[in-house]
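Hi R.,

Here's the chain you asked about this morning:
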Amino acid sequence: MAATTSLRQQQTLSSPVTVKGIGYWSGLTVQIHLKPAAENTGVLFVRPDLPGCPSIKAHVSNRVQASLRTVLDNRRIRVEMIEHLMAALSGLRIDNCEVWLDRDELPGLDGSANPYVEAIQQVGVVKQTALREKLVVTHPMRVGNSERWIEARPTLNKLMFEYELHFVQCLAIGRQNLKLEMTPETFVTELAPARTFILQADALKLREQGLCEHVQYSDLLVFGEQGVVDNELRFDNECVRHKMLDLAGDLALAPFDLIGHFIAHRSGHDLHTQMLHRLLQEGRFVESSRAA
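And here is the predicted structure, written out as tokens:
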């Protein structure tokens, strides 16, 4: 009976809300509509502008390799830069949502999850009847190597994140550490405002390749040798907070509430995906049909 009460009710948006911006990579204006969805829908990306109105579910099985971002592709529809929106939906415990968009890439906005959080808070959240199932870490598991890795450990009915960032390429970033229990409250205050970051040298290389030409210093954190260029930090350790934000968004590609302690050391999108695949194989599911 204890397992029954530990499962929470699924949630969705109380009404639709629209977010508009420009894609970092494409430079194109994109408008997305976040819409309420039925129980057990999960997060579904929909392209009504394409023939047949194709869709793709936000699930780790649909994730494909891409540099510096999380991308879904099922050969009918491709959606890029989803990690900040996924983090916001997961952080606020929005389980069911249709995301209607008119481009392949979600907007970069200010480089954080804050604009999505504010949009969701504007319309509010409603509970649904169905229960949200859990995926529990039952034993320690690790993926990666000695340089970059992520480990999952059992914990007691909560989700803990810990991230160790060691950015040797830039002394202004250096070593940063953060440990946090993930709740809607901690997500909103501690992670959602943290913006993506890049070294100025890497940003210039992207420009030379014809990418991100429209992105300004105010649109994200660009680090030069002396620190942030033409911008100000929201947190002293904003970089590690954003890495944890990305971790939350990537792990949200498992359509369950995760229960465990995830410790990441210089990890990125690929390692987060590897961990999810392993967890889906070795973790324990707590399902509503057999919770009693």
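One quick note: The radius of gyration is 19 Å.

Cheers,
M.
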